[in-house]
Amino acid sequence: MKSKRITQNLYSLRYTATEFFTQNRYKLIICLLFCLVGLLTGIFTAIKLYNLGDSDVFEDFNLTYQLEDLEKFSQNFFGRLISYEIVLVLLFVFSLNPIMYLFGWCLLAYRAFLISINCIMIILVFSFNGIIKSLLIILPCQILMLIVLIAFFVFMCKQIRINKYLKCKKFSNILYPFLIATLVLTLINLVETFLLFIFRSNVILVI
Predict the structure, then answer these.
(1) What is the pLDDT of residues 27-84, one digit of tens each?
(2) Residues 108-144, buried b or exposed e (16+ Cβ, 10 A)?
(3) Between vectors from CA 174 to CA 19 and to CA 156, what angle results, nearest 5°?
(4) What are 180-187's contacts with CB under 8 Å, separation 24+?
């Protein structure tokens, strides 16, 4: 009985996801294109900054220049939490009017830019330890976060448009997606923070 219910829930989830992608494919494609530009720009920028050899650029772009900074549990967890909460609020604001969609796309692109520039700089500066932390932990988790942010923005764009058309003023239509996105992002944040803490430099060196 339980297995049947699980199967039904999985089928329902897959159907909902498929319907979401089908109905919003153009917005999703636009978001992904902007993010791709951001990722590529971050890669080229990181290489250029590294070749300059100027330590001031680390502070300008909030880049990590000490491996221990990646392994501070509370500082990194709450820092990322504040960051994606601000991004969620801004994406919600930009979803209120089609005129402001461009700002949402640019914000997602900037988020992608920060992901790639940080990951590449970590690899260039810290070599082997940087590869482990960047490619195996930070990049996958941050890409998942970016996907959640894209899905939230696209969903809110559609939901706000539906609310205006139906003249619906239900606050739950806005609150629930925000809370769900926050919960998913926080879970990913926890996983990333735990992995960075567990696979610390001294642990890797001992292994």
Answers:
(1) 999 999 999 999 999 999 888 887 876 555 555 555 655 555 565 666 778 888 999 9
(2) bbbbbbbbbbbbbbbbebbeebbebbbeebbbebbbb
(3) 45
(4) 181/88, 181/148, 181/149, 181/151, 181/152, 182/84, 182/85, 182/88, 184/148, 185/84, 185/88, 185/145, 185/148, 185/149, 186/81
- C-alpha 45 chain-centroid distance: 19
Higher pLDDT, 131 or 180: 180
The CA dihedral of 110, 159, 83, 34, to the nearest 10 degrees, is -10
Residues 117, 46 contacting (CB under 8 angstroms): yes
Q: What is the model's pLDDT at position 6?
A: 55
Query: What's the pTM?
Result: 0.86
Name the band, by pLDDT with cuts 50, 70 and 90, for residue 174: confident
Q: Where are the alpha helices (H) located in 53-100, listed in sequence order?
A: 56-60, 73-94
Residue 150 has pLDDT above 60, yes or no: yes
